[in-house]
Amino acid sequence: MWFAALSPAYAGDWFGGLVERLLENDRATLRLLRRSPFPPDTPPHYIRARLFRYRYTTWRELRETGACWERTYVREYLPPTRLARAVQRS
């Protein structure tokens, strides 16, 4: 989903649908991921997306920490979101 941050207009056509299907625990959508980040047969209550800036570490940082990249939080891309539930009236 890194390309969604590069072009929010491009992501506008599909990102909302992806989030909705993930909240519904849609099996076909979950198969698009390497592994499901959610417990089996348990849809998440909320989903959020955060934007980070990544950079490769220097050789020195790599030797000292073992990390090959570093990330810095930039902003919320999508605040915590849940499915709207139908209100039942009696």
Protein model, in words:
There is one protein chain. The protein is of the alpha+beta class and 90 residues long. It is 32% helix and 26% strand. The chain is built from 5 helices and 2 strands. It has helices at 2-6, 8-11, 15-23, 27-30, 59-65; strands spanning 47-56, 69-81. The protein has a two-stranded antiparallel sheet.
Tell me the layout of helices and strands:
Blueprint (H helix, E strand, L loop, with lengths): L1 H5 L1 H4 L3 H9 L3 H4 L16 E10 L2 H7 L3 E13 L9
Q: Briefly note the structural class of the backbone.
A: alpha+beta
Strand neighbour order, sheet with most strands: 1-2
Radius of gyration: 17 Å
Gross morphology: globular
Instruction: Tell me the total number of β-strands.
Output: 2
- What does the largest sheet look like? 2 strands, antiparallel
Runs in which pLDDT lies below 50 for 5 or more consecutive residues are none
Residues in helix, %: 25-40%
Average of per-residue pLDDT values: 87
Short description:
This protein has five helices and two strands. With 90 residues, the protein is an alpha+beta fold.
Name its key features.
alpha+beta; 5 helices; 90 residues
